[in-house]
DNA sequence: CTGGGTCCCT
DNA sequence: AGGGACC
């Protein structure tokens, strides 16, 4: 056999050649390439069939713990359960339990106001995040034990892609025609005709209920869940009924939930700045954004952001759930009214660093970059805006952190930090800073070999306080099915192949989805570690996702700005339901720019490797090279 | 005067 | 490398 797994460094041009039938026939190594080519074609066609025969939309869960910090404190001290409890950071009530809320206390209220509203309010300091962090990772870990595709959002929220699990349950119980919904259904929709999509969401709601129950029995935590077809909608719907309840959003209610949102700021992904810029365009409500000509948005934000914002307003969100794994950085900070003495700065930095080094030590990885951040006092109440300087951490210092020479490490880091501080602040003049942050990033596992205990195993399982390192795996699987459906209709095999090739360049999903259908011959040729990777639970049946094939009413005003995707038969395209057209368009536009630069072959590494950030994005390119003919 | 994180752009 | 935006 020719060595599919070898020679990672050969040229892209060969790959390009092989992908063009004309070039293949012109090539010198016609025969071998032809075989390879046929293998590819059959793999993809087989795989394409799967799209036609399997449902395609995702089932996404969003979990949101109730007043998280307060819950943790009430677990530590059950006596607090019956009392109005507020968690205090500095002068602010960062959250409070529901007893306190009944008495008019709210989140982010100043301590003074809260005490005024509720004099009996019990305050607990919440500046030390250690316990919250630990509990937070226990939650993520628990969810991950059911399905590895869990993405953290802050300390108290998790997204989960349970499409696979739903599919499996559905397959296991073929005659589960009468699955009911667990928890609430948004808008109290009547059990309605069980479209395939709704059935799958119903299964999702049972999974959500089960997981919430697990969270309560195993960790003592209550929370809300939202069940929907994408992250945006799952997050939006999860807070519908508050505390300790869950809600499903059916596709038919998408326009309702978006419309009810009111202010644009309420759309996840639209922050303060973006909301202000939108307002400057005269857009204040979600409906304004839905109807705004895309061109106006493009001038203000550029195409990618414009498209993303418009999609969000329509309830569209194709972003994959990306498993979070171990943190990318560890930091510690403190804020204060005023600091203007170098000595104070030095002391504070030392204090922050000694705590950070301890955390770093438990983590087990070695930081290779150090960053110091400050916030200057500004008369114009420009409180935000931080400045930072960073530098490499010399290896001899980094080693001291991981190997337990904390004190030495700290003092050397302190002097490193002070140099950075001098780069930002002229200590000979008067200064006034209100915050200091120290941060370790560029974290690398020490073990070089994959089998070594360090790289894969250390995050969650270590001591209770340090989460395990987990490869970051993303399932990116939207668009595909609908595109392929379209192309099947338009018969043109060339189109199909070209399209599939583009998907390979831009979508990790192709590789993932392809795996269950990988040609056994090809599979055998893969290096052992890649085989293992493909078989690992994380990769097991990534299923396509995206558009439902069941017709849906067009819920939104049609955006009229669309051209037609170049790779799609215009006649076929025009016959599709409007909302399907719209979703195809947005997908197409979003990925169009990327298509230009294939940028294959990064260096050869695999997703199971340590740092997961690159792993997520490179997974397809890294795996791809093993399919690349030579 | 929140304390973390993450990702993206330049 | 540094800042911005977001949760």
Describe the structure.
The protein is α+β, with helices and mostly antiparallel strands and 630 residues long. The protein binds a DNA duplex (10 and 7 nucleotides) through strand 3, helix 12, strand 11, strand 13 and strand 14.
> Could you tell me the strand content as a percent range?
5-15%
- What best-fitting shape do the alpha-carbon axes yield? globular
> In angstroms, what separates the terminal alpha carbons?
11 Å
**Coarse structural class:** alpha+beta
CA gyration radius, whole angstroms: 27 Å
Helix content: 40-55%
Biggest β-sheet strands, sense, barrel: 6 strands, mixed
| Mean pLDDT level | 70
Annotation field: number of helices = 27
- Catalogue the unreliable spans: 1-34, 448-630
- Extended strand count: 14
How are strands sequenced across the largest beta sheet? 6-7-1-9-10-8
